[in-house]
Amino acid sequence: MESFIIFGIILALGLAFVNGLNDASHSIATVVATRALSPAKAVFLTAVCNMLGPFVFTTAVAATIGTAIISKDALTSQSIIVAMGTAILLIYVATRAGLPISSSNAMVGGLLGAGVGAVGFSAIILPSPDLVLRVFFSACIGAIIGAVILAIICAAFEGNIRLGILLGAVFGAGIIIPILMIAGALQIHGLLAIVLFIFISPLIGMAGAFLFNVLVSQLIKHSHQNRAKRIFQPLHILACLAQATAHGGNDGQNAVGLITALLVASGFLATFSIPLWVVLLAAAAIGLGTCFGGWDVVDKMAKGITKIRPYQGFCAASASSGILVMETLYGIPVSSTHAINGAIVGVGATRGKDAVQWKVVREMMRAWIITIPLAFICAFIGYEMFSAFMLMIS
Which of 82, 200, 230, 251 is found 20 to 30 A from 5 (Cα to Cα)? Predict the structure, then answer.
């Protein structure tokens, strides 16, 4: 049994490593695109921040992973190992293909599939219908408010009003949910929060970066290009490092939650209390993975979506890092992929719809949408095969 647990811990660290391998691109992409930092310096600084993330933020994300997605009876050593193996495989394949998928979603889908394989669909911790309805009506109200506000702002700054209405509705529908969560009016956690923020993160990133970019461009429209570059380049670097730290505090805790859940399921821990050595190992693994970042992913995010100027890189990184910090503090396991890609699209959209390579965006969105279902199916099949194998050798 001890060797089985050691194997599971190694798998969890492997998950943290490939997380850094794929997700390295998220914080690096905009600084590489604007040449604010050389790729080597960007990788090193991002790796350091990824390692610091779990110590800067709380372990709320790890608790969500280990307690709020599938029921305790479904969190067996076998289901956890199958879930991790599935997530690692999907992330590795996506990195080789240059697709910035959500490693958090791959892991969540793996847990769901393995949990259902273990005890059936009762393993999934579902939200109440009343909560789902409250979220829906809140999003509708937010969409109306957001459309009106952004239309007024675009009209005042002679922007694209129709695009402002559309983005305002999107932004309003997305931002109202975290606002109500912060105010305590909505208590959203577990699977519902994860699914919601698959869509909310890129939407807020896109609309927030769009709005921030419009405001900043108005402030600097009479400034010389070189002066604006000198101002925003260091700010851009700081925003990207903040994003990398939040990423480490969020995605870096996936492995922490899984290792702790594995120790509880195996009887090594009586309660879900996270040991310090687990946090240290996971931080080291994600930092090491970042150093070997997937450069095909970096290239697609840095150059494939849209052309980015230094002040736009600052706007995109600021918007995405703000989203990640909020989600990390509330224990929502998300991927920085969604937030930063949405933010890059948002700053590109300020120059019109033709400034964004929508074909690349659609390709990424398809990868995001299918990640959880694909991981679910693979993990379910993997669990059945693993169970059959264990019966054969026992």
Answer: 251
Buried (b) or exposed (e) across 102-112, using 16+ Cβ within 10 A? Answer: bbbbbbbbbbb
Structure-model confidence comparison of residues 357 and 377, the more confident one: 377
Q: Is 70 helix (H, G, I), strand (E, B) or coil?
A: strand
Residue 352 Rama label (left phi>0; alpha psi -120 to 50; beta): left
Cα–Cα distance for residue pair 114/125, rounded to 1 Å? 14
357 neighbors 306 (Cβ within 8 angstroms): yes
The answer to whether residue 183 sits within a structural domain is no
State the average pLDDT over residues 259-273.
Answer: 86
Highest mean pLDDT among 128-132, 207-211, 272-276, 335-339: 128-132
Task: Summarize pLDDT for 223-242 with one digit per residue, the tens.
Answer: 766 777 777 888 888 888 88
Indicate whether 380 belongs to any domain: yes
Q: What is the pTM of this model?
A: 0.80
Tokens 């059945």, residue? 384
Amino acid (one-letter) located at 223: S
Is 362 contained in some domain? Answer: yes
Domain span holding position 102: 2-127+188-393
Which residues, in sequence order, are CB contacts of 76 under 8 Å at separation 6+? 118, 265
Provide the number of structural domains found in the chain: 1
C-alpha to C-alpha distances, 214 to 217, 239, 307, 339, nearest whole angstrom: 5, 18, 16, 18
User: Residue 66: what pLDDT?
Assistant: 78
DSSP letter for 305, please.
S
Contact assessment for residue 346 and residue 79, using Cβ atoms and an 8 Å cutoff: no
Collapse the DSSP code of 27 into the 3-class scheme (helix H, G, I; strand E, B; otherwise coil) and give the result.
helix
Report the C-alpha gap between 8 and 2 in whole angstroms: 10
pLDDT of residue 381: 94
Cα separation values, 290 from 108, 119, 236, 349, Å:
21, 36, 19, 29
- Residue-averaged pLDDT of the chain: 80
Helix, strand, or coil (residue 146):
helix
In a domain, 26, yes or no: yes
